[in-house]
């Protein structure tokens, strides 16, 4: 029995006993004690008896109830709960146990940033990290779809604390209602070129393309553009979406609807501003298809529950999370660099979490970005390490980024380099051309005779100084 409860119980006994004796003495008169010839010992015994009879049963009853409650609390504390241990052990907000090569990860991901980038060698777990985030933040119904694609083990635990919400996921737990949450999550894997149609019957979730390749994204042409264009009250959505695509695709001049068949056509322009022939979606460059299908899917998802849709402010009451595997896929280096900042300007309420193999993507990272590298070993499994706290991207050029811990390249020389010629180290190709012209002019000017005279003049100058 707890010492405090013992003392508390004895005190109750003593007080109630004294009060009981005094009441009985007052009632029977001053001769009560003498008449019954109670000794001091008998008086104490009498107090205990009276106490037990009047208060003892009540006190013991209350104590029993408290004892049972204490036992339940002790049992709950002693029960080992991996997810509970994860969420409290280090105060971290991203915790994963036993998931797709991840043995145990406990880190803080800066969800308040606009971008989080993951780099690392192929096979080092970048996609697995995105999948863990998708699993941890998706709804119960969406996770059922992912389980059908790629089942997880019974002892997998994912615990994420984001935007003030603590989200735990395992096979037996996970009951969050996505529509009632403070965020919406979307995920895009390496295969994100194909859009579905109204005839599509395959059931997919918002992050399905992270888990399988044959996924059709929502069709911005059929669900959005071709419908909005013919409705006066929603026509502004068509033009706002057109402006978004024109901002993301450098030479896109116009989008219009063929009123005969309701098909969407795209008109591009050349470098001189001349318009090219209209083309359908499947006739566009692969990089442009990638942008239209993915960004179109984002627009449809985040405007589902939004009455107000504006180009620069989309669904301002709800934050969103977009996971992108290999952001740079299919894109020219110049667009790889521009895309991160453009997406943040168009979707200011979205947290983008992306993997990349390109230093150009990191060059274009907005100021509010964080960078992590993934590692993998037989002993520890997949691990991640934050790197932007010791490497400052805004001070580096591509070669420096490639040879930094972000990409760990030790050799950036051309494979064809033999060492017979001097390698160019200028930052810009224009500088290389200018220096090449200067070298050619010097070579033209310097004949053998002039070279001998220069050498002789140099030697004489050295003698004069001595």
Written overview of the protein:
- This protein has 14 helices and 12 strands.
- The strands form 3 sheets. A 6-stranded mixed β-sheet has the order 6-9-10-3-11-12, sandwiched between helices. A 4-stranded antiparallel β-sheet has the order 2-1-4-5, sandwiched between helices. Strands 7-8 form a two-stranded antiparallel sheet.
- Helix 1 packs antiparallel against helix 3 and helix 7 packs across helix 8.
- The longest helix has 39 residues.
The helix-and-strand class reads: alpha/beta
Strand order in the sheet with the most strands: 6-9-10-3-11-12
| Low-pLDDT regions | 1-7, 36-41, 52-60, 69-90, 174-180, 305-315
The fraction of residues in strands falls at 15-25%
- What does the average pLDDT come to? 80
How many angstroms separate the termini?
102 Å
Q: What is the fold-level CATH name, i.e. the topology of the largest domain?
A: Rossmann fold
């Amino acid at each position: 029995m707890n010492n405090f409860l013992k003392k508390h119980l004895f005190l109750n006994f003593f007080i109630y006993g004294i009060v009981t004796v005094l009441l009985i003495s007052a009632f029977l008169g001053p001769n009560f004690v003498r008449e019954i010839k109670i000794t001091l010992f008998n008086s104490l015994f009498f107090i205990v008896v009276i106490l037990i009879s009047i208060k003892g049963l009540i006190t013991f009853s209350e104590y029993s109830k408290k004892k049972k409650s204490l036992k339940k609390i002790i049992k709950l504390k002693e029960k080992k709960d991996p997810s509970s241990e994860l969420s409290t052990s280090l105060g971290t907000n991203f915790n994963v146990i036993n998931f797709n090569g991840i043995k145990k990860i406990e880190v803080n991901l800066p969800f308040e940033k606009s971008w989080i980038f993951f780099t690392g060698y192929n096979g080092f777990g970048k996609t697995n990290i995105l999948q863990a985030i998708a699993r941890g933040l998706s709804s119960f119904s969406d996770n059922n779809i992912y389980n059908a694609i790629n089942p997880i083990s019974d002892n997998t635990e994912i615990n994420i604390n984001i935007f003030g919400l603590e989200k735990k996921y395992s096979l037996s737990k996970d009951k969050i209602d996505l529509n009632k949450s403070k965020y919406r999550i979307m995920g895009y894997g390496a295969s994100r070129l194909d859009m579905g149609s109204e005839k599509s019957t395959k059931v997919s979730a918002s992050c399905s393309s992270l888990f399988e390749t044959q996924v059709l994204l929502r069709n911005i042409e059929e669900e959005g553009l071709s419908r909005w264009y013919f409705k006066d009250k929603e026509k502004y959505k068509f033009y706002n979406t057109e402006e978004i695509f024109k901002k993301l695709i450098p030479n896109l001049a116009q989008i219009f609807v063929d009123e005969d068949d309701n098909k969407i056509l795209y008109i591009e322009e050349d470098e001189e501003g001349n318009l090219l022939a209209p083309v359908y979606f499947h006739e566009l460059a692969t990089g442009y298809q990638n942008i239209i299908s993915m960004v179109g899917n984002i627009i449809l998802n985040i405007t589902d529950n939004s009455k107000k849709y504006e180009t620069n402010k989309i669904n301002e009451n709800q934050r969103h999370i977009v996971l992108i595997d290999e952001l740079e896929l299919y894109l020219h280096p110049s667009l790889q660099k521009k895309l991160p900042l453009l997406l943040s300007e168009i979707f200011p309420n979205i947290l983008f979490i992306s993997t990349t193999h390109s230093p150009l993507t990191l060059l274009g990272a907005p100021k509010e970005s964080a960078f992590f590298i993934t590692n993998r070993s037989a002993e520890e499994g997949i691990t991640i390490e934050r790197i932007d706290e010791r490497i400052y991207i805004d001070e580096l050029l591509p070669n420096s980024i490639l040879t930094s811990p972000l990409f760990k390249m030790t050799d950036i020389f051309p494979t064809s380099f033999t060492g017979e010629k001097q390698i160019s180290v200028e930052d810009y190709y224009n500088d290389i051309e200018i220096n090449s012209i200067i070298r050619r002019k010097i070579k033209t000017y310097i004949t053998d005779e002039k070279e001998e005279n220069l050498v002789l003049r140099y030697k004489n100058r050295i003698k004069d100084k001595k």
